[in-house]
Amino acid sequence: MRPEILFPLFAEIETLPGIGPRLKPLVVRLIGGEHVADLLWHLPSGIIDRRFSPPLDETIDGSIVTMDVWVERHEPPPNRRRPYRVICKTLSGTLVLSFFNARAKYLNDVLPVGEKRIVSGKVDHYRNEYQITHPDRIGTEAERAEIQTVEPVYPMSAGVTGKTLTKAMRAALQLVPELPEWHDPALVARNKWPDLASALRTIHNPEDAADLSPDHPARQRLAYDELLANQLALSLIRAKMRKLGGRVTNGAGDLRQKLAANLPFAMTGAQQRALADIYDDMASEGRMLRLLQGDVGSGKTVVALMAMLNAVECGRQAAIMAPTEILARQHFETIGPLLGQIGIKCAILTGRDKGKARKATLEGFANGDVQIAVGTHALFQDDVVFSDLAFAVVDEQHRFGVHQRLMLAGKGQAVDVLVMTATPIPRTLTLTAFGDMEVSRLDEKPPGRKPVDTRVLPIDKVDDVISGIGRAMRTGTKIYWVCPLVEDSEILDLQAAEERYRILVELFGDARVGLVHGKMKAKEKDEVMERFAHGDTSILVATTVIEVGVNVPDATIMVIEHSERFGLAQLHQLRGRIGRGDAASTCLLLYGSPLGQVSKARLKIMRETEDGFIIAEEDLKLRGAGEVLGTRQSGLQEYRLANLELHGDLLAIARDDARLIVDRDPDLQKTRGEALRLLLYLFERDEAVRYFRSG
Ligand code: ADP
Ligand code: MG
């Protein structure tokens, strides 16, 4: 239950002045929430200073000024294309206020002839005439104090004006209660941080640009509030998982030895190190929650398989869960035969399994006949019961949330969880994304991989590229052709891909060319992928939907159109789909000209390295955290007040702070703990609170 003192901040924004039922959805979309608190987290991005009142001949064109004017006469326009003009006197000369599509009655009301008014807006001069077109503010002497101010400028979107936001914000600020301080007093004193209410007031009523700078104490405080809320929630969940206790899973090693003997390769050093970490976790009394980070092709699957066998050696079950049907099937196809060879039974469960087959699979899980389960989130369903699930692997973590991890963990008595991701997340960001997990990295590729030859070339060369792939096709090569992102719009993406598909079909025939995109049903998609992997299709045209991890070893060419529009991490992931077999592979990055400096630098990185971690670090430097973790790809929590490039140092402090808090007061019952509960509720991390309350 949310504490009462926070109720005003969780009132609907509709209760604020100026936000009615029509405007509400627009504001919600803009601020990303529907509560007063969400509005307060919508920070200004700049200021407009209306304090300036220079003589007219000293004004700079385009600058904002506030003027005392005496209205002399109105000049209605001779035709609709000309503005309505109101001629005014000022102490330093004549100022014309002009209005397009004006209503005369309204203008006569607000600017009556012979009266004095205060006007504010952007001044320009044209020949010898000074004018303000559509003044932002018009008022009487009595309203001067409201006009001649410094105004915050908010990030805006269509339909929501700055005036509306400012007005609602004023009311919202009135609702901020006095809250007890939840931060360490020494930290607050050292940084001269104001309390939360004062910090919000400062930021929403900035007096100059410095008040909005990322290192202003008010801004730092808010960023830290958010970072600590996040880190604390993660620490609490992790501590709880630990306390829940695990079981000691430490098998005799016989199955693992058999499997290793059957594999055509030896484990890399990185794989061995990761396994040592994992076996340690499994053998300990605590609950395991570990992230295995490794580039595409770094060999995560075998690591997962070995760890699962450790559980099976103890007479228990293990499960591996993938985010999509295709990936689940692919795991099943790789793992199934390997397990079969050593006499272990493995079954797959996805949303597509129905009726009798599904029932049989569930029976196998429930009576323990099936030792290893492979599936999608269908494994979460209520009627899925395991005889004794001890270990779960979650592949491609990004598509799942903390919540789902907990659900899977709830399927067994004390399930150890290994999360695997192929997204190379820079070290600084690992912390925010996975602060609740230990991390192992596969930073060494299996030997014998041929590097991918990456070339960057302008899109005008596309005809040469097409003749090149025509030749390659004749030798049995498979080709991915990835089509560009167009303005973030799936529909346009699709049109571009369809157009490319049409051209290629014309040249090579529709038996040889396939098309996959996000709008297709899973089943259709699988069929096209299947024809590409094992059938006649030689060229697969795709929007960015090609599944992470899809494995087609014969695919050795990838063409990426308008590669400059992709994120580096995305390009890296895409490129990871080739270079999986023995043959040399080529990646052609086509770009549209002219190419900007940053884009040039980014494509150069792609050409120079295949190391996902280096690419991720460089991408972060060039673009910034929000985009590296881009919501579209990652589904990771985005911060609203903190900016990781600007507040990265606070993140490390928040993590240590959170650990200390959880060590000293694991149930948040002491005085500071009570206050910290408010912080968790305030940032809607109550999942963590609920979790430790329920015991
Ligand atoms: P990931 O899931 O990390 O993308 P996979 O587990 O699919 O990578 O491994 C990619 C390929 O590398 C597979 O064909 C796998 O059999 C092979 N592989 C894994 N480990 C090794 C190794 N130590 N030596 C050689 N090949 C390996
Ligand atoms: Mg994989």
From TrEMBL:
The keyword Nuclease does not apply. Coiled coil: none annotated. Its EC number is 5.6.2.4. Keywords: ATP-binding, DNA damage, DNA recombination, DNA repair, DNA-binding, Helicase, Hydrolase, Isomerase, Nucleotide-binding. Pfam families: DEAD, Helicase_C, RecG_dom3_C, RecG_wedge. Transmembrane segments: none annotated. Belongs to the helicase family. RecG subfamily. This is ATP-dependent DNA helicase RecG. It comes from Thalassospira lohafexi. The lineage of its organism: Bacteria, Pseudomonadati, Pseudomonadota, Alphaproteobacteria, Rhodospirillales.
